[in-house]
Amino acid sequence: MKILKGITVLIFMATCSLSSAQDIANHALGLRLGDSDGFGAEISYQKSLGLNNRLEVDLGWRDSRNFNAFKLAGLYQWVRTIEGDFNWYYGVGGGLGSVDFPGLPNDDYGGLFVFAAGDIGIEYNFDIPLILSLDFRPELGVSGYNGFSDNFDFDIGLGIRYQF
């Protein structure tokens, strides 16, 4: 009888520890500060879709001496554990935006654009509900203003997000 009670207690403790280990944040909201030929910031939202995948949506702006741009990006990501609270992730997606070149005399060079994107990065989940990440997002212009549809852009970003 004592052995049966002991096994029951061990199974209960193991179940509780496994369920808490798999308990991940459903949402994360924060900023992604990046460089895409100029300083830019994005309001970033992540929604968990399962244990190892999530959706990320970023709304941001880019600013440099040559252009001003707004863009909306959506990415589907797969998350893998490195060790402990370190993860790496990769994903695919795309987005759309608008760009303006204030120094150019006519408006034919700016306008709406559509892009495809990939994503790869690392992140650290703190004991408090905070995530820090560093990612690389290559973007390929699909259609849009003159010159962008043939453009390939490298976007590197540092993210800080609050998990809830």
Automatic annotation (TrEMBL):
Residues 1-21 form the signal peptide. It comes from the Bacteria. InterPro entries: OMP/PagP_B-barrel (IPR011250). Keywords: Signal. This is Outer membrane insertion C-signal.
